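PROTEIN DATA CARD
Card holder: Acetyltransferase (GNAT) domain-containing protein
Chain length: 144
Origin: Pedobacter insulae
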Amino acid sequence: MEITENGFIFSDDSNLIDVTAVHRYLSEESYWAKNIPLQTVQRSISNSLCFGVYKDTQQIGFARWVTDSATFAYLCDVYIETEYRGLGLSKKLMSLMMFHPNLQGLRIYYLGTLDAHGLYAQFGFKPLAAPERRMEIVVKDIYK
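Structure generated from the sequence above:
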């Protein structure tokens, strides 16, 4: 899938992903993956359904889904470069991803966010319906 709109390209072609650019953003600018090693980013991309946003040949956005394409999907590492925010690119990216064939008919879609609840609520995401039925293991500061 590749769509061009207003000079921006949205694509699920993993071959287009600039792993160096994604790594730079995640390791230096994100709050959730500070100092993440390049090898970890490479492995996560190769094992996920990834989407890129491009202006000309420059990667300006990214998102990936960890999914079995049958029952669940976990959305992570979503970003748009700072200078391109406010243009509706996150909404367009979310719209395209939510209709991707590999993300249809799943039982559950997850994500984690600190500050983008409003964006994700527009696409049907809500707080956990039964948090008492969910558990997690969190390894704090794993990339230090």
